[in-house]
């Protein structure tokens, strides 16, 4: 039955995994100093996290054809043509839904979706170039999404282009620069088999953790400096308290990997994603209230 085939393909959109990207959404909103519509923010969330990100996930899965664990799925189902149909449907819904909020937002979402296709499509496949693929992910899932979220809630050009806001957008990219290689650390064998020379594969397992730690520390330092510049000491305090568990977990995981590299596995990676996403989302969401 065709409907059954679509149901089997649906998990490859990895909608729950898309929620791990929530911190950038909340971060973008928390950086705004002028009020915005909660309804527009909800619309932006639906477009990005329930439509655009799943479409990108599904398209990537279609061309990766993973046999081992992937982000959010321990045992991914077989890829089928129906998955591509779902991707196209979600693409259209994302752009149309964004259009109801603003044409500029729709244009930004469309560009994001096109870039995500170039990342995975076998004829281009930016993913196989370690530095280029990292730059694309870091920019488009970081600063670009940060600013796109603000455009979606109708923030003024003055707010979006303010120097301190652009620095915070850069911070979001630094955080992505640290976290992105960690999501690849357990897939070295499969990436190498496909010919995808990912950044984590180039760095090696231990090198990935060193690189991630440096990038995350740089992002945190720049964030702290910017909050102090904006006289938002309470925001800095919230961030430090909420991300304490993330720092602890990362340190514990790194120590385990140094003792035995097999600890760089799917379970540890997913737990790191879950804890960091939850803690950072809570921190940035609370900043909207305090």
Automatic annotation (TrEMBL):
GO molecular function: transferase activity, transferring alkyl or aryl (other than methyl) groups
A GO-annotated cellular component: membrane
Keywords: Membrane, Transferase, Transmembrane, Transmembrane helix
One Pfam family, short name: UbiA
Transmembrane annotation, as ranges: 12-32, 38-55, 83-115, 135-154, 166-183, 203-229, 236-258
Primary localization: membrane
Cell location: Membrane
Membrane topology, as annotated: Multi-pass membrane protein
Name of the featured protein: Prenyltransferase
Organism encoding this protein: Hymenobacter perfusus
């Amino acid at each position: 039955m065709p409907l059954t085939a679509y149901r089997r393909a649906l998990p490859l959109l990895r909608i729950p995994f898309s929620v791990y990207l929530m911190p950038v959404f909340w971060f973008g909103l928390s950086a705004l100093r002028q009020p915005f519509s909660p309804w527009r923010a909800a619309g932006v969330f639906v477009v990005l996290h329930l439509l655009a990100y799943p479409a990108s996930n599904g398209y990537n899965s279609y061309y990766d054809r993973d046999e081992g664990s992937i982000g959010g799925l321990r045992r991914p189902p077989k890829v089928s043509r129906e998955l591509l149909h779902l991707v196209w449907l979600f693409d259209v819904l994302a752009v149309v839904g964004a259009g109801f909020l603003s044409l500029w937002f729709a244009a930004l979402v469309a560009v994001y979706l096109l870039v995500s296709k170039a990342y995975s499509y076998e004829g281009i496949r930016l993913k196989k170039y370690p530095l280029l693929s990292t730059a694309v992910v870091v920019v488009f899932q970081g600063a670009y999404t940060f600013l796109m979220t603000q455009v979606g809630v109708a923030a003024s050009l003055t707010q979006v282009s303010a120097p301190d806001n652009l620095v915070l957008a850069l911070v979001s990219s630094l955080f992505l620069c640290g976290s992105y290689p960690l999501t690849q650390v357990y897939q070295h064998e499969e990436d190498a088999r496909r010919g995808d020379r990912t950044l984590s594969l180039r760095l090696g397992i231990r090198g990935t953790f060193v690189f991630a730690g440096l990038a995350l520390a740089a992002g945190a330092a720049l964030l702290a400096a910017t909050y102090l510049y904006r006289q938002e000491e309470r925001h800095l305090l919230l961030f430090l308290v909420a991300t304490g568990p993330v720092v602890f977990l990362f340190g514990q995981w790194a120590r385990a990997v140094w003792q035995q590299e097999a600890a760089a596995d799917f379970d540890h990676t997913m737990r790191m994603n879950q804890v960091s996403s939850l803690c950072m989302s809570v921190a940035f969401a609370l900043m909207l209230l305090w």
